[in-house]
Structures are given as C-alpha cells and as structure tokens.
Write the structure tokens for this entry.
Amino acid sequence: MITRMNHVSIFVLNQDSAFDFYVNKLGFKVHTDAPMGPGMRWLTVCPPEQPDLEIALMAITEGMMFSKETAEQMRELVRKGTFGFGVFECNNIYATYEELKMKGVEFTKAPKEEFYGIEALLKDDSGNWFSLGQKK
Amino acid sequence: MEQYPKIYLYRRIVQAKLFIDEHFADNLDLHNISDEACFSKFHFIRLFRKIYGKTPHQYLIAVRIEKAKMLLGKDTPVSEVCYTVGFESISSFSGLFRRLVGLSPSAYAQDQQEIKARIIKTPLRFIPGCFAERNGWTKKAILKN
C-alpha cells in the first residue's frame, strides 16, 4: 500500500538560479545540497511546513540522463512553459501573491475565486508553472 | 489582471512583513512599523496575525531564530550569531533558541556540522537510488558508501 510521496523532481535550467528562486523568493527550506562531482549537484528543497517532501531541483544537462539533443529539446520545452508541476498551498493567497510579486515572481493569473477555491498561477525562474491555491 | 478587494490593506501588511524580513537585526520598534503601515497599533497587530498566524513581535523572533539556525549551520560562533541576528544578550538568545528549537545553539550547530559531514562523506545515503542511478553517480567510486 502506497502511503506518502517523499520525493518529486522539477527540471530547471540553472540550479543556482533555481536555488535563489525557491529559497529566497518562495521561502522554501534547503533539505540537501550535495556536490556530486564536477558540475553536478543534488539539491532538494521543501515547502516550509512540509519538511518530509523533498523537491529535487534537477539541472537539465547532457550526461547519463539526457543526450545532448534531448537536453536541448528539454531545455526549450521548459523555457517555453510546457510543464506544470503542481499546486502550492498557502494560508492567505492575497498576501502571498502581493509578497511574491514584490519579490519579482511572475504571475500569469492573479488570485481569482473559482468553484474549488481561490487560485493564481505563477512561473518559476526556468519557466515551469504552478498553481498557487487557497482552499475555501 | 483582475483586482481583488482590500488590495491596499494586503500591500501595507506585506510591506511591513518584508520590512521585518530585511531589518530583523536592527533594534526595531514595532510601533513605528504600524505607523508606517498607516494603521493603529491594534488594527495592525490584528491584521498581521490574521495573515501570518503570529503577532509582528512573534514573527520578528521567528525570523531571528531562523537566521540564527542558518548561521549556526555555517559554523558561525554562537556569540557572533546572537548579536548578528539582533539579540542583546547571549543568555536570552540561548534560552529562547532552546525553547523554540529544542536544542541549545551549540548543540544545534554541532548537529548541523555532523549532517553536513555525512552528506559530504556518503552523499548516496541521501539520494534515492533511482535518481543516483540515472545520473551515473552510483558508478563513481568516490561517491560509494
């Protein structure tokens, strides 16, 4: 029986920039930051109130995981905003939206009441998009 | 983009929160912050608490303790951490830190150093095998546990 999810990965264009976005702008905590040899790094972050969900910020680089061609295709897809990775929850979406906008986070939808809750849409520094939600 | 009601209220409270985030190490007078936010003190505290779940003072303490944890994780001496994050005495800092974190500042720093050393020495213990395998990290002798 599956009980929980404890790791999920997000593909990013640059891990240093992603670190700044997720930690300094969104306020996530660094869980593990381990150098894995030249040019490689295992970097996971957690939402502040969810320390057991590690989000791995995976660099799209040519290597074992991606061929040169696939890495280039993948980077282009991420940059174009092809991928949406999930929903971030917050206590007060209006305050969170204002704070993130002041920090330079790009939103493609301002908070709006929907039948399932209040929702906004934001993009990370690579182009991945997320829903920001507050339950009704 | 659409506007939502009371946007000006949220902006003022968020600006006050960001002010605390930036100036946590200063000798902050939270009365001034409520003045700058153009609220009466009690209205300001009530709204702040409604949004962030803490009074401005409780939030300031939480920010200082988080910054202290970050500095202790970098092996900064306890006395330096204490003054850097805005406390005026080591005993009040240590007491508050222990109460909120559950460890003394020095014990927390030691814990963090041990975790860091383990990550450097045996990184594969911290990475699910599927990720390590796909990145080719399991084949590198230097990273083997």
